[in-house]
Amino acid sequence: MVTKGLKLRIYPNKQQRQQLAQNFGCTRFVWNQMLAMLNERQENNPKSSFLNAYALNNLLPLLKKEHPFLKEAESTSLQVTNQHLIAAFHAFFRKEKGHPKFKTKHAFKQSYTSKFVHGNIQPVGDHGIRLPKLGIRLPKLGILRFKAGQRIPETIKQVTLSRTPTGKYFAVLIVEGENQAFPKTSKTVGYDLGVKDLLVGSAEGLRWPTTRFDHGLACKLRLWQRKLARRQRLAKKAIAWDHHQKLPVPRTLADFKNVAKARLQVALIHEKIANQRADKLHKLTAQLVKTYDRIAMENLKTKNLLRNHTLARAIANQAWGELRRQLTYKCAWYSKELVLVNPYKTSQLCSTCGYDDGKKALAIREWTCPQCGTHHDRDVNAAKNIEHLAFG
């Protein structure tokens, strides 16, 4: 059995949207209250043992008594919020992430997670037929409608509901399914990650050129970003004038519809770019997993590479982290193997004789080994070294 996530776009009605907004606010409030308590406890008594999620859940009844509006929220979502907070602290202690931060209602994306308890989450509809409209029954919300072209398993472990900056609602269902396997091909491959080409394989001709999705919409994005900046600047001047006049109810940025319109247009463009990039990566990774049984890639530290301001935009466009994430779970789903290799000197060593020709500038795309005379394409040679390091 493998755990999978199914992402569905949902269409809540007005009452359900209000309840979703309330749940977003309640989980955010619990996160901030618990985070403030943990920070204060650590400052006042640094040697005290750190609380776990179970201890935080025991504080929820007292918090609900003090703040009755929390009783209107979906109860398991508050427990999951505590689990996420403790997990964030553990990642901080392991130096994997920064210190957990307080959440704001002005964040572009809002979400919360509900757990499956005593049948509180159930799919609705005929699961043997691909109906154009199906639904899912959720606590506090009732039946949420969605359109899907796949069957939903009877058992759902948890569901995460979210609202995007463009006002769309999504549900991510965590379900368990059978471990499917693609036919074995006995093929292995190594891949070098790059900027000019997204992937270069260890065999000649295996290249996936870069697609700059942001270039096609760059002019439109810049236009709306300038409009947004100008409208925000004018709105802030109007707000400052309201305060100068000492109006009883001064305006806020939320009162300026032209600012909201520009912000929405910028979010829509970013969303389109992200969707195009994700679609390409899903098709690419599915093809790789079907074709090869064992795949090797270099384990790049993208965060460090982004410090190169000359290449930062191009590197971010490649989405190497998302590519690696998709390959990781798809290899696990379909019984394939993914090996991550230290990229140290993979571009310097001759893949034929192992001679180290020293560090090379990025402008050098081809070179000839002075030891054995083999002429190398820089990226193909690196991919061959990656495959050799991973599989011998």
Strand fraction: 15-25%
Computed structural class: alpha+beta
Q: Roughly what percent helix?
A: 40-55%
The SSE order reads: EHHHHEEEEEEEEEHHHEHHHEEEH
Low-confidence stretches: 127-132
How many separate helices? 11
Task: Specify the biggest β-sheet.
Answer: 5 strands, mixed
Describe this structure in words.
It is a single chain. The protein is an alpha+beta fold and 392 residues long. Among the domains are: 176 residues, no CATH class; 54 residues. It is built from eleven helices and 14 strands. Strands 10-9-8-11-12 form a five-stranded mixed sheet. A hairpin with a 6-residue loop joins strand 13 and strand 14. The radius of gyration is 26 Å and the shape is globular. About 2% of the residues have low confidence. One of its GO terms (biological process) is DNA recombination. This is Transposase. Keywords: DNA recombination, DNA-binding, Metal-binding, Transposition, Zinc.
How would you summarize what this structure contains?
With 392 residues, the chain is an alpha+beta fold.
